[in-house]
Amino acid sequence: MTDLLAEARDLDARDPLAAHLEAFVPAAGVSAYLDGNSLGRPLRELPDRLAAFVREDWGTRLIRSWDEQWMDLPTALGDRIGMLCLGAAAGQTVVADSTTVLLYKLMRAAVAARPERTEIVIEDGNFPTDRFIAEGIAAESGLTLRWISPDPVAGVQVADIEAAVSARTALVVLSHVDYRSGALADMKTITDAVHDVGALMLWDLCHSVGVIPVELDACGVDLAVGCTYKYLNGGPGSPAFAYVNARHHGLLRQPIQGWMGAGDVFAMGSTYAPAGGIRQFISGTPPVLGMLAMQGMLDLIEQATIGAVREKSQALTDLVVRAVDEELAPLGVRLLSPRDAALRGGHVTIGHPDFAEVTKRLWADGVIPDFRFPDGIRLGLSPLSTSYAEALSGVLAVRDALS
């Protein structure tokens, strides 16, 4: 125990990203915030950014801001996320709707592009939205869902995919980081296996964008969707992003044909003609206000670099896993995440039959992880806003609550 405390202090003293901790709004009454993988903390600069927006961009420029900056914001911001976090060249990423809506758009477009194929492959433990959307699309398109059931801790392996895909597969939908265990999938190997049978690959990046360097272009990924309110700190309900590889532009046709995705937005044409490139995947008026908060976080990631963020993330989760072994395992707590930091994302999941009640006690005491049914606690460690001492204190609080 003494060694862990000393190590946490030493890691904080040597942390090259420590200065960024002060960039976030302190939460009154919270001693450890360990839920950045669900909702990132706001930046201190956000009130000034919002005030300037109300005063100038909206309050002074009024509707002129659409021509001056807002019309291009979805693609400009998408390009920035792509460059800093996704390994995506410009012109392939757009910020638009919610994660759910974008998943529907890309899944529906993908299966329509493979009309001779009859199956969607998806994990039975994937996030509910992914599964629910796939179920709905299968029903409306007369397709079959082929469920895979990988190891719940290790996550999806390429062997799971190779056993499930075939010439019948139109689309495979997987999460890059498992929302339960934090298991990190091998994007390149799995994508290659999907392409070997002629199917399309869609990755859900909600638990990896902003904490893990992603290489969508290098991995040959077809499609991807991710949210911005976790490690990109965009705030509750901030819009998601969609990535469509340039080789599919003009071939995939999105199903929600709104006016903002038209080639000439203000022509008010009698029929829909899609815009070229990634812009065609916009439907309605972009949520400009919802795009403000994430811009400051992208500035921080650019300063820190996504590689350095990943390095700290691995060190944080390594410290937590060791603390779980030393302090919680003797109390019957199970590690529900991969032990190897290279095989997990930015959170560590632990299990115990009493964790539903323990979570209530932790929240009342100002320690904020999140509970996942039936008996798991996720310790989400957002590297730019979480210190090593804070992460360790969360584990110790779980120990004390159990004791």
Explain how this protein is built.
By secondary structure, the protein is α/β, with parallel strands linked by helices. The protein folds into two domains: 2-44 and 305-402, Aspartate Aminotransferase, domain 1 (Alpha-Beta Complex), CATH 3.90.1150.10; 69-300, Type I PLP-dependent aspartate aminotransferase-like (Major domain) (Aspartate Aminotransferase, domain 2, 3-Layer(aba) Sandwich). Helices cover 38% and strands 13% of the residues. A seven-stranded mixed sheet has the order 2-8-7-6-5-3-4, sandwiched between helices. It has a four-stranded antiparallel sheet with strand order 9-10-13-12, covered by helices on one side. A two-stranded parallel sheet has the order 1-11. β5, α8 (187-196) and β6 form a beta-alpha-beta unit. α12 (355-364) packs across α13 (388-402). The longest helix has 23 residues, at 306-328.
Distance between the termini: 16 Å
Please report the first level of CATH classification, the CATH class of the largest domain: Alpha Beta
**SS-derived structural category:** alpha/beta
How would you write the strand order of the largest sheet? 2-8-7-6-5-3-4
Q: Which CATH architecture of the largest domain?
A: 3-Layer(aba) Sandwich
The CATH superfamily label of the largest domain reads Type I PLP-dependent aspartate aminotransferase-like (Major domain)
Fill in the CATH topology of the largest domain.
Aspartate Aminotransferase, domain 2
Largest β sheet strand count, sense and barrel closure: 7 strands, mixed
- List low-pLDDT spans: none
Output mean pLDDT. Answer: 97
Order of helices and strands: HEHHHEHEHEHEHEHEEHHEEHEEEH
**Count of alpha and pi helical runs:** 13
Radius of gyration: 22 Å
| Number of structurally distinct domains | 2
Overall, the morphology is globular
